[in-house]
Specification:
By secondary structure, the protein is mainly α. It folds into two domains: about 5-95, Rna Polymerase Sigma Factor, Chain: A, CATH 1.10.1740.10; about 120-200, Arc Repressor Mutant, subunit A (Orthogonal Bundle), CATH 1.10.10.10. It contains nine helices and no strands. Helix 3 (about 50-65) crosses helix 4. It is globular, with a radius of gyration of 18 Å.
Length: about 200
């Protein structure tokens, strides 16, 4: 199994190949990250079609402007940051869409059943996890998503959201404290993030 560094090196090779016009490398990057980007985008704004259009716009831009792209030390982070910029640009053009991380609740979605737990515990844990996640603000959920599901560093999150590094640490600490308060000890954080965040894809 490849570690994070090996994946990053492989991404960098594909990125540089794409910049030189390699369509296979471009397709590989799309296949590797489109699902993740769709999932992240819906943490920014709960509009499936808008997010899908923004992802398409991002990859169209990458291909048409490939010869002008620079190096990307972290391809994943570059794509996430670029998608977020595109979404915010679209939101600013459409005043009927509201982006308010602290006050607005992102709709909860029922999702396909997971096989990792049996059906009886699934319902119980689902209600427990959703109830706990609803105690968090949108900003707290987004940062936890980036930290534990996307595997972004605190520095990358601070850069992406244009906030201080210490603020990221504070939000994570506060959010985890809330979760631990509302969840029973037998529900692991790994299960929480997989179950909740994967279900919105």
């Amino acid at each position: 199994m490849k570690n994070g560094r090996e994946h990053q090196n492989e991404d960098n090779l594909k990125w540089n190949a794409m910049r030189k016009g390699n369509k296979v490398a471009f397709s590989d990057l799309y296949n590797s990250y489109s699902r993740l980007l769709l999932s992240y985008g819906r943490k920014v704004i709960d509009d499936r079609q808008l997010v899908a259009d923004c992802v398409q716009e991002l990859f169209t831009y990458l291909w048409t402007r490939r010869h002008f792209l620079g190096d990307a030390p972290s391809v994943k982070f570059y794509l996430i940051k670029s998608l977020r910029s595109i979404i915010i640009k679209e939101l600013n053009k459409n005043k009927s869409l509201v982006l308010d991380y602290e006050d607005n609740q992102i709709r909860e979605h029922t999702s396909r059943e997971h096989q990792i737990i049996n059906e009886e515990l699934e319902l119980e844990r689902k209600e427990l996890i959703q109830g706990a996640m609803e105690k968090l603000t949108d900003r707290e959920r987004e940062i936890l998503y980036l930290k534990y599901f996307v595997k972004s560093t605190n520095e990358e999150i601070a850069d992406l959201l244009n906030i201080k590094y210490q603020s990221v640490k504070n939000v994570i600490f506060r959010a985890l404290k809330k979760l631990k308060k509302h969840l029973s000890v037998h529900v692991s954080l790994k299960l929480i993030f997989y179950y909740y965040f994967a279900s919105i894809v």
